[in-house]
From TrEMBL:
InterPro entries xrefs: NUDIX_hydrolase-like_dom_sf (IPR015797), NUDIX_hydrolase_CS (IPR020084), NUDIX_hydrolase_dom (IPR000086)
Keyword Magnesium attributed: yes
Co-factor requirement: Mg(2+)
Cell membrane recorded as keyword: no
Protein name: Nudix hydrolase domain-containing protein
Pfam families assigned to the protein according to its UniProt record, in alphabetical order: NUDIX
Length: 176
């Protein structure tokens, strides 16, 4: 699996070649004036009782789902797979996309497209990353006071998407 994407590397390379040479800038500076938007990939991982797996980061005061920000030329799904391997020591292929959520700028963080994929069922996950204090399995109600309200809304949509089979689009955790 390539750091660029989570699909077949040979097909991806062929797709890149089929696009032709890199696009040139016809008006100098126009590309550098475009806004920079971030993206992140995360996973809804549950245990066999249906509780959601949360990571306990050392670098912020709230819980989060396994996953993280994309690197340059990396897809959100590949970022989630990479981060899950780094954070939990698990090599997994993620299931379908459950939610795409746009979150606005928040302090030092730029606005972001957040992608949540189905991470399936994993019992007894453990933290393997020094950036984590540990992991915890909680229901969404139990997690609510320990996560951002937008993440709570996003995960509620992810659970609904999992149950319905229909991907959801949201803005700041609210389906639109």
């Amino acid at each position: 699996m390539s750091a660029l994407h989570s699909g077949d590397p040979a097909s991806f390379a062929a797709d890149v070649l089929a696009e032709g040479p890199p696009e040139l800038e016809h008006v100098p500076g126009v590309a550098s004036r475009r806004p920079t938007k971030t993206s992140a990939g995360g996973a809804l991982i549950r245990d066999s009782t249906g509780r959601v797996l949360f990571v306990v980061p050392t670098y912020k005061a709230v819980l989060d789902v396994p996953g993280g920000m994309t690197e340059d030329d990396e897809s959100p799904k590949a970022a989630a797979v990479r981060e899950i391997r780094e954070e939990l020591g698990l090599t997994m292929s993620l299931g379908r996309l459950l939610v795409v959520d746009w979150t606005p700028r928040n302090g030092v963080w730029r606005d972001c497209h957040q992608f949540v994929f189905d991470g399936g069922v994993v019992d007894d996950a453990v933290a393997c990353d020094p950036e984590l204090e540990g992991v915890v399995y909680l229901t969404l109600d139990e997690a609510e006071p320990r996560i951002y309200p937008s993440l709570h809304r996003r995960l509620a949509l992810a659970v609904a998407a999992l149950e319905s089979g229909s991907t959801r689009y949201a803005e700041f955790g609210r389906e639109v």
